[in-house]
């Protein structure tokens, strides 16, 4: 059985006191949510402060991005060893905002995944199609290209540290959630692709989160799908009642 995994992506929101306060609230209630994995991914400048709140709790710290080189003259970038140094266990890679606003390619994402795994950071690899790609019937081909491009050279044993997040771009931050059936169809496709690239054991074990306007009101239906193993939550992870509501649905 795959353990449900809920991660909150705070994106470029909050200030230091708001971030610490939200983390403290999540920790305060976290013992109510047994049998699931929980992570929060604050902006990089608040990782250390938020990590302090998470100490000795079941809530893991994650980052929203990293660079693939371990150190050196890369102004403005943050490396995997640095994320480990401040207590991160997870890193979101290939988020659609990084792909589409900041121009990240599958090849770059692949190097980042490799670098994350090299320092025992667990990548959350995001894939997902644009609205026009869905309407053109290209969803499967788009996510297959993203998946295979991002996972080049990653071994079956390394895959035990990787989470995949299916995030249809048209559903992110728009309030337009995929139906449970739409999510299940793509999740099952992704699991089949992992089976084809690796093996059945790897495919059965890999966790595939859904992301895109998840809220307490739609979480139960999405999470009840057999290939939906959790959620990557943006907007609703910034509101304590909403995030706790989603955790409750996953428990
Ligand atoms: C996300 O940023 O990964 C996301 C899914 O955002 P939202 O939940 O706001 O759609």
Unreliable segments of 5+ consecutive residues:
none
Note the overall shape: globular
Integer tally of domains = 1
Strand content: 15-25%
Using DSSP, what is the number of strands?
Answer: 8
**Can you give the mean pLDDT?**
97
Rg estimate, integer Å: 17 Å
Order of helices and strands: EHEHEHEHHEHHEHHEHEH
Q: What is the structure about, briefly put?
A:
By secondary structure, this protein is an alpha/beta fold.
Draw up the topology in text.
Layout (H helix, E strand, L loop, with lengths): L4 E5 L6 H14 L7 E5 L5 H8 L4 E5 L16 H6 L4 E4 L2 H5 L5 H13 L3 E6 L3 H5 L3 H12 L12 E4 L13 H18 L2 H6 L1 E5 L4 H8 L6 E4 L6 H11 L1
Helix pairs in contact: 1-2, 5-7, 7-8, 10-11
The structure holds phosphoenolpyruvate.
Features:
single chain, alpha/beta, 15% strand, 8-stranded parallel β-barrel, 251 residues, 8 strands, globular, binds phosphoenolpyruvate
Tell me about this structure.
This protein is 42% helix and 15% strand. By secondary structure, it is an alpha/beta fold. The chain has a single domain, classed as TIM Barrel, CATH 3.20.20.70. The protein has an eight-stranded parallel barrel with strand order 1-2-3-4-5-6-7-8, surrounded by seven helices. The chain binds phosphoenolpyruvate (PEP). Phosphoenolpyruvate (PEP) binds next to strand 8.
């Amino acid at each position: 059985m795959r353990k449900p995994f809920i991660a909150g992506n705070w994106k470029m929101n909050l200030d230091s006191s708001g971030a610490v306060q939200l983390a403290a609230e999540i920790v305060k209630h976290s013992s109510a949510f047994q049998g699931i994995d929980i992570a929060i991914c604050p902006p990089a400048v608040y990782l250390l402060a938020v990590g302090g709140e998470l100490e000795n709790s079941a809530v893991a710290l994650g980052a929203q991005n990293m660079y693939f080189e371990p150190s050196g003259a890369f102004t403005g970038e943050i490396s995997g060893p640095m994320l480990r140094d401040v207590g991160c266990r997870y890193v979101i890679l290939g988020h659609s905002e990084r792909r589409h606003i900041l121009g990240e390619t599958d090849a770059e994402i692949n190097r980042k995944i490799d670098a994350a795994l090299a320092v025992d950071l667990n990548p959350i690899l995001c894939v997902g199609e644009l609205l026009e790609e869905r309407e053109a019937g290209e969803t499967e081909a788009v996510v297959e290209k993203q998946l295979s491009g991002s996972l080049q050279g990653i071994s079956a044993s390394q895959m035990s540290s990787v989470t995949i997040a299916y995030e249809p771009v048209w559903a992110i931050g728009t309030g337009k959630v995929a139906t449970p059936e739409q999510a299940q169809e793509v999740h099952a496709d992704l699991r089949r692709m992992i089976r084809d690239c690796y093996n059945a054991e790897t495919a059965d074990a890999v966790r595939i989160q859904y992301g895109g306007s998840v809220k307490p009101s739609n979480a139960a239906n999405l999470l009840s799908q057999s290939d939906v193993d959790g959620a990557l939550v943006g907007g609703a992870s910034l509101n304590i009642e909403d995030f706790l509501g989603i955790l409750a649905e996953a428990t």
